[in-house]
Amino acid sequence: MEPTRTLLGLLLLSPALTAACALPQPAAVVADVEPTVFEPRANARTDVLRAPGLPQFPSIDPTGQWIAFSHAGDLWAVPAAGGVASRLTAHPAREGRSAFAPDGRRLAFESNRDGATNLYVVDLEQQGGRLIAGEPRRVTSTDRSESLGGFTGDGSALLFASSREPGLYRASRMFRVGIDGGPITRLTDAFGSEPHQGADGRVVFRRGRDLYERPRYRGPGAPELWSLDLASGAFEVLAPSDASEHAGFPTPDGGLVFVSSRSGSNQVWRTDAAGRTEALTNFVPAPGEPTIGHGVRDLDVSVDGKHAAFAVWDRIYTLDLGQADAAPRVVAIALSVDDSEADVDVVDLAREVDESAVSPDGATVAVVARGEVLVRATAEDRPTRRITDSVSREADVAWSPDGATLYFVSDESGRKGIYTARVALARQDLEPAEAPESAAEESDDEAAESEAGDTSSDTEVDVDVEGTEPESDATTEDEGDGDEAESDEDDEPEGPTPGERWAQALTFTVEPLVLDPDVHLWHPLPSPDGRSLLYLRERGDMVLMDLASGASRTLLGNWDEPEVEWAADSRHLVYAVSDLDFNGDVWIGDVGPADAVDWTFEPVNVTRHPDIDHEPRLSADGKVLVFLSERAGENFEWDVWRVYLDRSLEGLSQYELAEHFEEAEKAFAKRGAIDEDTEQPEPFELDLDDAWLRARRLTSLPGSESNLGISPGGSKVVFTGSVGEDSGLWSIGADGDEREKVVGGSPGNVRFSPDGKQIAFVEGGQAKRVKADGGKAETFDIDARARFEIAAQQRQKFLEAAGVLEFAFYHPTLKGLDWGALTQRYLTLAQGTRTSDEFNRVGTMLFGELDGSHLGIFGGDAFRAPSQDTGYLGVDIEPVVGGFEVTEVILGGPADREASRIEAGEVIVSMAGRALAPLGSLPERDLYTVLEGTEGAELLLGVRGVDGTVRQLVIEPMSYTAERDLRYEHDVLARRDDVERLSGGRLGYLHIRGMSMRYVRDFERDLYAAAHGKDGLLIDVRDNGGGSTTDILLASLTAPNHAFTVPRGADPASVPTDAYPRDRRLIYGYSRPIAVLINENSFSNAEIFAHSIRTIGRGRLIGTQTFGGVISTGAAQLIDGTVVRRPFRGWYLPDGTDMEHHGALPDVDVPRTPTDEAAGVDAQLEAAVAALLADIDAGK
């Protein structure tokens, strides 16, 4: 073994490892001890070794000698003193948190290798100075994600948190499972996560959200640490503060080591048995550095309480907890360059297309795939050519009307700018030019002369590389008169058209057209005559550029992105844009001549409706405008509407209209690419003044229509939608008749060809085209692969993600942050990530600097195993001798049905004839492990009744989603019964699950069922995650009692004064007293609802303050599909108070405790019943 120790020593002292990992050794303690200044690493890589870009989730073994950590999706081990890390797992899945067993001989970890994140265990050995892992063994088997806490104090089981048993409250519960698998049991009925058990048996856990990335948050949602005595079931809050507390580990002396943000950043703290609390670290940025990513994360403490490990920025530290005033020590980690991770990512672009544009002549298609611009001829089996080849993101492809130029947008310069691409070399250029006949005859003569001994020099022949014939001024009498000669010249071939050159293109010239280092320029739209280019600036300013002079003028300044397109006269724009009430209308305006300087753009609102109108499309003759509108249905359910901009069409009979449209389509039947001889139309004369009165609805299908298009003559309108169960692209006539299916599937990016004969679209990541009359679509296969350097790709993605927030975050100064400096700082971290999970975590850290809600980043390229399709029976169970005892049956679930009913107290003993437990023993497997893959299948269960007899029954397990919904309804009914009992039948109860139209319908249903005839109503918005329907609910709850009605035959004396005809209101009205239940998990629009009830004095709020997270949000997508949330609109109370960070305060403050949860007590509900009854009795 001596040579191994010597080699390890050499590695630890080698210059390569020192360059990769050397760091100053810090000293720490908040307030009373010198801070640890976090110095950036000078060099993180050599030719042989590199440091991990983002090491995560370190765990320390009981001896303090080894660290396991996650990097690039795998688990690694490294000596705590530092050294070259060895890989413990090698799998394309993501391995996350890990934990050493108390004896150090096993390692538990999370992995999604078999589907959802489940728990695994490996045996460990030390060999040759390395830690070696055996074959992973799966411990849990469900389709629900599980978050590892750690081993139990005796090492016999694992503790974890999961939402595997959902209900009304959106929180995790904690569970226990043996290290060899077996039945999973609840630790407690209370909610919690991050369970850690010490040697004394205490379990410390966290309640509340994970707010590691928001250390400055102070509010009711800040997580707390609690302890649970498993023997007595007693709970105790630990180290309380108004800050966020995470990752609590009990120590044998009765103390606690944990992470807290009470100093303003995340640091390691310790509380002793007497309750004295001290900080153990105080990491601060180096001078000139704006951040270290909020401080400490991913704390782990050994079971004996002597050793700690954690991460800060891109490094792992250890801390000797047994030594007074110990300083954190960095763990110098090196990975073999060849062993650590790939540096290059190769992506097949065949199914990555998200935009397509067919050239005006129909011969070439341009696509955007994974942010790259490519082209190919539309003829069958043609090769694909790349126009761009970089990690920057390109988009918004558009052809010039002559087909010579392809416009697109790129962010290569750091801001979006507009570029052009033209053919530099085509196949035609490689072919020898054909000599004219006269030249050929002269060559023959010259050849004869040469044979006769002519010694004159060779004659040079000019070859035009464009393929055109040489020009000649010579004429002869044989050429005829001038007219005939001119005619002959016109008939001679003039070489390939721009479209023909694109179809045979080999290389391209790409040039910037419009760039601005300070603002984004995007969405280029060339005018149909090719003289102007419209583009958008920043958030939506419409800018018009004269392509001849390069001069630009701003037509309209917008805070919102308009949906805009040209009219075929190149003078009018039709666009839809939102106002400050977020209502969209369709506008049309005359931009004037291309070279106009003083022209005033005066658009006309064509639709003028308080519901949203968008996606305007105009026929090529300017006579027919179609658009999508929600005016006839619910919010964001779109129908197709039409208005004639030539009023005379409205006076035509059906056959006259048919003749008009037939002639109109014929007029455009030969339209394609323009040239200098193309005649341009005169500016349209449009009937706009009363257009808003003449709009007509063309579709009334259930759901929404989208991807609108109109044929050049206006006779055919296409859209995507569903007719019954049949979805696809549909066409209708200008009057909404003659509906036909064009093509099935889910087409997007729909565009008519200039002649109206074909429709191009994108579906399933492929560019396609179909005849406008329908039929089989042709697919333009893209045969190309993109090779990206991963670090460069991560850089591009991160800058784009940061730019989304810089551009869209609702606070105009981004809360005074130096966003550019922060972006550059986190960029150094993001470039070192290798998986989507790592990248997204760095993004979350950056976004956390804003200390705002509705921020997030998720998705991207990642390993995905097939779904496990676990079946659910709709029961709560406990393992008992012989099987699983049913402790409760969920109403409406499979076990509640007549043919497969199971009663509480009965025991499930077998499945498909196989016993679930050995004779006289507890089950050795968890029931949901046995139920893996059974969703929707018929199962034969053996059930032992309370009388001891076993019967067989056939049951069909349901999905997790179905069980989740039934468990929610089960909880609601239980609370409704509680209110009925507590109020003596005087009060009704309903819970609003979310703020969407689905739940508005549930609200209206439940409002009548629960409250009709009651004295008052409790409305529960606890754990409501938000949405957008507060004002619809208020329409019900604030309907004025301006009258009541008494029908003939009713006793006037018995008619209540709020009796009112239901059909006269848009929603069922309720005017009797109410109270609203709220808590720290009432979020977003649920908070707006609570604020509104208080603001208008409609009722009292009972519970705890809401979270304080109110911003309207949208989403943007990065180049690889990663989704970035973009909170863009703030919400304010009438006095100007920002609802963000200012949750709705309760009138009656009642906390929810784990003690109450474990006992099944809802103190908030009880207080609400008492408060509302008191208000009613007091006449309020």
From TrEMBL:
Residues 431-500 are annotated as: Disordered. Residues 431-494 have a biased composition (Acidic residues). Gene3D superfamilies: 2-enoyl-CoA Hydratase, Chain A, domain 1, 2.30.42.10, 3.30.750.44, TolB, C-terminal domain, Tricorn protease N-terminal domain. Residues 1-19 form the signal peptide. SMART domains: TSPc. CDD domains: Peptidase_S41_TRI. This is PDZ domain-containing protein. It comes from Engelhardtia mirabilis.
